[in-house]
Amino acid sequence: MSLDVFIALLVFSLVSSITPGPNNFMLLTSGVNFGFVRTIPHMLGIGVGFVSLLLGVGFGLGALLIALPQVSLALKILGGAYLLYLAWKIAMSRALTSGDESGGRPMTFIQAALFQWINPKAWVMAVTAMAIYTNPEFPFLSVLLVAFAFGLVNLPSVSVWAGFGVVLRGFLSNPVRLKWFNIMMGLALAATLWPMLR
């Protein structure tokens, strides 16, 4: 992979990682409701889970989904149902928590990593990246480079969303504002299903 192609891959990785989607809406909400430090396992889980998904797609899973459309449909249904469940949980959340409170819990590292495997946006990103940026002459190395590029930009990208949530914490300490923020974030998360349903 030439330097200019790798730079283009980094730009693609950054833009697709930092734009709105299920992960970023959940991180924004987690930053508001739980603070930055308690959201770190969620952020790390997204990075590790997405890189593992990229590697899976790059090393043959994408071809399997094309060959078996029923598996792709099952993933869409499972992912959509789980996304709606998460949207409901976010919309019904009503209280900010600090590090020592047990009233609510942010998504764990494992939950966030596993979510990538049923996240519709993550699948679109992974399949698109592998289709555009891998080289058939050097398949193994190019798959690793795509995964590396996303791994490089993912944590800074998702940190922006969690950090923005922390900035909003003071403003949303008002229970009425927090209630409406969480309802709007739940609706925004549910709306991310629209591209998959079209």
Automatic annotation (TrEMBL):
Q: What is this protein called?
A: Lysine exporter protein (LYSE/YGGA)
The protein's superkingdom reads Bacteria
Provide the topology term for how it sits in the membrane.
Multi-pass membrane protein
Q: Name one GO molecular function term.
A: amino acid transmembrane transporter activity
Q: Where are the transmembrane segments?
A: 44-66, 73-91, 140-168, 180-197
Q: Does the keyword Cell membrane apply?
A: yes
Q: Which biological processes are named by the entry's GO terms?
A: cysteine export across plasma membrane
In its keyword annotation, does this UniProt entry include Cell membrane? yes
Where found in the cell? Answer: Cell membrane
Q: List cellular component terms (GO).
A: plasma membrane
Alphabetized InterPro entries for the sequence? LeuE-type (IPR001123)
Keywords (A to Z) from UniProt: Cell membrane, Membrane, Transmembrane, Transmembrane helix
